[in-house]
UniProtKB/TrEMBL annotation:
SMART domains, per the entry: BTB
Name of the protein: BTB/POZ protein
CDD domains: BTB_POZ_ZBTB_KLHL-like
Ranges of residues in domain BTB: 29-88
Length: 288
């Protein structure tokens, strides 16, 4: 495996530091993003070239193109921060901050009282809910879809998938599933498929959980996805599969040599030939 030269790594590291400074300090900024009392000073060359939404707002003659400012009141500053972190640094922190900013005191108080998905900045890390990272990834995914940032959608889905596979035993696992089913737009099924794929691979354990069963009852579309995943991942047997296996075992046991090359059987299967009671000699590939 080839390794990048040290000089190349050093150059990329320096470039990343420059981009981080531009994001944090706002030097040479020519555009503002406003969100619930927080102002992010950004750069059109970086933001508008990676987002179809921002490009249209600034370049297509809308009010924002004159004011050089975009107001994003439907998202939280934390989500906007993660979006900008990706646009500048190609990554974002699932928890905590990449960009330090000051929030109006009233806004912080309101959100801390009304939502368990937002945690006061000075609260110890250990007291944050286990599902916080998952919720953050969901919000980033939704925002990336809304603002036309496809690579960020892919990254958020990847981070979400990792959380699902690492935190399936979390007491809040069902809350995460409910959040996806209730908040992700109907045209986008990526996160639902992540959940369905996981449940299908752990179907016996998951269906023992009353909370998961309740979710199936509430969101039939998820149950349909799980069934589709069970079939596509070949985790369920076709009705005729059991009898096909029984006949195949009897056929193999009735003869121990290949009728073509006379060697002792070393059996090989191709595709789904076993469903038709067929197997091949591993030595000469003769079908039996």
């Amino acid at each position: 495996m080839s390794m990048k030269p040290a000089s190349s790594i050093s150059t990329m590291s320096k470039l990343r530091d420059v981009m981080r400074d531009l994001l944090q300090q706002g030097q040479f900024s020519d555009m503002e993003i406003l969100c619930q009392g927080v102002t992010f000073k950004v750069h059109k060359a970086i933001v508008c070239t990676q987002s179809s939404y921002f490009h249209s707002a600034i370049c297509d003659g809308f009010k924002e193109s004159t004011e050089k400012a975009i107001n994003l009141q439907d998202d939280t500053p934390e989500t906007v921060e993660r979006i900008l972190s990706f646009l500048y640094l190609r990554d974002y922190r699932e928890e905590g901050h990449s960009v330090q900013y000051e929030q109006p005191v009233s806004e912080v108080a309101i959100r801390n009282n009304e939502s368990d998905s937002l945690i006061p900045e000075n609260e110890p890390e250990s007291t944050k809910p286990a599902h916080q990272a998952a919720f953050n990834n969901i919000e980033v995914f939704i925002a990336a879809d809304k603002y036309g940032i496809i690579p960020l959608k892919t990254l958020a889905a990847s981070k979400f998938s990792r959380w699902v596979n690492e935190n399936c035993s979390s007491p809040a696992f069902h809350k995460v599933i409910e959040r996806v089913m209730m908040s992700v737009p109907p045209h986008e099924s990526t996160l639902q498929e992540v959940i369905a794929d996981f449940i299908s691979r752990h179907i016996f354990e998951q269906t023992q959980d009353p909370e998961i069963v309740h979710i199936f009852n509430s969101f039939g579309s998820l149950g349909s996805l799980v069934i589709a995943k069970l079939i596509s991942n070949k985790l369920v047997k076709r009705p005729d599969e059991q009898s096909a296996f029984a006949g195949l075992v009897q056929k193999i046991n009735s003869s121990n040599r290949c009728r073509h090359c006379s060697k002792e059987f070393n059996v090989r299967f191709r595709n789904e030939e076993y469903l038709h009671g067929k197997f091949r000699c591993a030595g000469c590939s003769t079908r039996h």
